[in-house]
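User: Predict Channel transporter's structure from this.
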Amino acid sequence: MSMIARRALAEFVGTAFLLMAVVGSGVMASRLSPDDAGLQLLQNSLATGAALVALIVALQPVSAAFNPVVTLAERALGMVGTRTATALVSAQVLGALAGTAAANLMFGLDAVTVSTRERTGPGLWLGEAIATAGLLVVIFGTLRSGKADRVALAVGGYITAAYWFTSSTSFANPAVTIARTVTDTFAGITPASVPPFILAQLLGGAAGYALVRLLYPLPATSAVVTADRKVPA
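Assistant:
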């Protein structure tokens, strides 16, 4: 199997399990705590953050972005080529959809059900931009500080917190956003709500990329070597 194929497979598997954690824990939380939205969010955020830590640790030696915005930032930083980035983003979206379908089936639901949970408004869009910008700073700031072995804890901790401090509960990921349209559960989002969410994520990603370049002005070759040796993607 080629390196690109291995990376794409890792992204597919990792993103699928991430969505199983997001959607599955949302369903479980709704069933265990049907009258307490705050407790539901706590359960959902803890499960998602813990799953992210585990998945990044396990798949980091191959590829562990699980997020098209992260992969696009890697492309902009020269860490991956266009062909590789295209393969990884495709795998992330397909993996997210597969993971959502699997989560639905695990809980006795139809594999695909279009969500009716509307999430819209300037506050939520701003929350998505901020969540995504912060995520990129956390990931690439940790990498450029020479602490690639701590990325998993940094990302898991950040996403768990961002569930609570952002109005949108921090989707911060176009693949996750698309996949959550096919589950009419606690984690769902209506298809009509998706375009502005993704636009906000891309704008936040651009802001995060700019911050990384300003805060960590390492020579490009040094950044690439560090990334390629420790967190290939």
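The first helix runs from residue 3 to 32.
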